[in-house]
Hints:
Elements: H1 2-28, H2 34-39, H3 45-55, H4 61-73, H5 87-122, H6 127-141, H7 144-158, H8 174-207, H9 211-218, H10 223-234, H11 236-252, H12 255-260, H13 266-275, H14 279-307, H15 309-312
Helix pairs in contact: 1-14, 5-6, 5-8, 5-11, 6-8, 7-8, 8-10, 8-11, 11-14, 13-14
Amino acid sequence: MQRMVIQRIIVGIITLWVVSVMVFIGTSVLPGDVAEIVLGQTATPESLAAYRAERGLDQPLYMQYLSWLAGMMTGDLGTSKAGGASISSLINGRFGNTMFLAGIVAIIAVPLSVALGLLAAMYPGTWIDRVLTFGTLSLISVPEFFIATFMVLIFAVKLHWLPAIAHIAPEDGLWETMRGMAMPLITLIIVVAAQMIRMTRAGILNVMNSPYIEMAILKGVKRRRIILRHALFNAIGPIVNVIALNLAYLVSGVVIVETIFAYPGLAKLMIDGVQTRDLPLVQACAMIFCGTYVILIIMADVAAILSNPRLRNPK
Length: 315
């Protein structure tokens, strides 16, 4: 088991390195010049050259990559080329906001999704299962920007119950903070819960076709006891993987939701960096997203190994 965990960690490190190369090259070929964006169109060629030399933009691409990679490995994210501020200071508050939003969504969506998925698996073919299946399929088919826009139209424009712009401030109380975050929270819960409900149901029903489950059914064990005591533990692997993928989405895939609701999170910060062509900021945000994704996937793999005796003790 230790060898399998070490292998996954090594694969994760290699994945991060490959992604770092792709992120650096991809951001480097973006159109536009950060010097012209910062100094303006009236800047002289001498001032543009001096700015590029000061920021290291005149160095060869591979030298810029090695310098950036060395800084990332030592925890130095660099300096913003657009504003001159430390990237760590720009990311700290935004990353906390994104993690706060993702944490609340995870606390609500994960137990709710697992419970509804188990409920659908306990009563397959009934009206409960059909309603949940139809609802999850419908929500999975709808993109998040449509759900977010619909939420704004109904709750902000028509009913005036919730603000259309997500606003959080240190001086706000709990009620004001939750009211300001209600729209992005509900949108993300709807998006991630639909997938987790469906995969939980599918994982449980797949295990229910196993021979030992059929033997338990023939012995007269109640279906609810079979699911909760036997099927659930054997279906933890795929369920945890789906949960990990959706939690990674909450951190790295909320660009559209944060943009629509103007939520001051990390994804919105990356979009602002793309608009100003602040390459170190975009690269740092992209690597944080990728690192979070890889860590969650490794944790899901470890949980799957621990929950499966055949993986814990391979022969």
